[in-house]
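Subject: complex prediction, re-run

Hi both,

The earlier run crashed halfway through, so I resubmitted it with identical inputs.
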Amino acid sequence: MQLLLPQRRALADEELHDLYDPGDSPSLRGGFVVTVDGGIAHDGSSRPLQTPADEAVFHALRAVSDAVVVGAGTARTEAYGPVRPRPAGAAWRADRGLPPQPTLVLVSRSLDLDPGGRPFAGPCVVVTCEAATGRERFPDVVVAGDDEVDLPDAVRQLHERGLTRLLCEGGPSLLTAMLRAGLVDELCLTSTPVLVGSAPSLLTEPLERPVPLDLLHLLAGGDGALLARWAVRR
Ligand SMILES: NC(=O)c1ccc[n+]([C@@H]2O[C@H](COP(=O)([O-])OP(=O)(O)OC[C@H]3O[C@@H](n4cnc5c(N)ncnc54)[C@H](OP(=O)(O)O)[C@@H]3O)[C@@H](O)[C@H]2O)c1
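This time it finished cleanly. Structure:
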C-alpha cells in the first residue's frame, strides 16, 4: 500500500492501526466500501466489493475501536459474528491495555434477532427502544427512546459503558440516521474498482443540508482501491 496524501510514501499493513487510531476523545466513524458507481452491495452483499487492501483497512478500523455498531439489517444479511481482531490488531490492542475484542453493538427496532445466533458468541450489546418486545431474550440491552431508537441517547449510554470509540459499519439506513442526528465525526470510505449498476447507495435519504468533509488521508491499495479517511467538518 502507499500513502498518497498528506505525503506520499510506502505503508506497511502494521502501520494502519496508528494511521486509523481515532485517539482518546469519543468519536463515531462510519466504515464502508463503495463501488466506483456508488453502490454498496452486489446481490445483497458487500463481500464482492472487497479487495485485499479494503480488508486490511476493515480489520484495522475494527482493531482500533471499542465497539462496532451495526444495524440489524446488515447483521442479518452479512451473517455477522463476534468481532475478532487479526494478530497485528490483537497485539496493538494488548499494547494499549484494551480488551481483546471490540464489543459488537446491534441496533434493532424489531428485535428480529436470534439470541442463540453467532453475534452473541462474543461481547454483544443490543440497542433498542421501550416499545420493542422480547428484550428479556438478550443478555445485554441498551434501551434508548420510546417508540423509536433514540440514537444520541444510545451513543451516550455506550459512552457511559466506556465504549467511546465507535465504528459504524452500516448499513445505509443506520448511517443515514446517524448523520441526520449529527453523530458522525468521520467516514472511512474505500472506493473499490468495480461497477455494479443498480444497487443501494451509501445513504438512503437526502440529508437536510450538505455535510462538508475534509480529507485526512488517502491511500492507494495497490489493488485498484483508493482508501480515504474523511472528517465531518463541524
Ligand atoms: N458496502 C458496505 O460497506 C456495506 C456496509 C453495510 C451494509 N451494506 C449492505 O447494506 C445492505 C443493508 O442495508 P440496510 O440499510 O438495510 O442496513 P441496516 O441499516 O443495517 O439495517 C436496517 C435495519 O437495522 C435496524 N436499524 C437501522 N437503523 C435503525 C434506527 N435508526 N433505529 C432502529 N433500528 C435501526 C433496523 O432493524 P430491525 O428491522 O431489526 O428493526 C432496520 O430494519 C446489505 O445489502 C449490506 O450488504 C454494505
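The radius of gyration is 17 Å.

- K.
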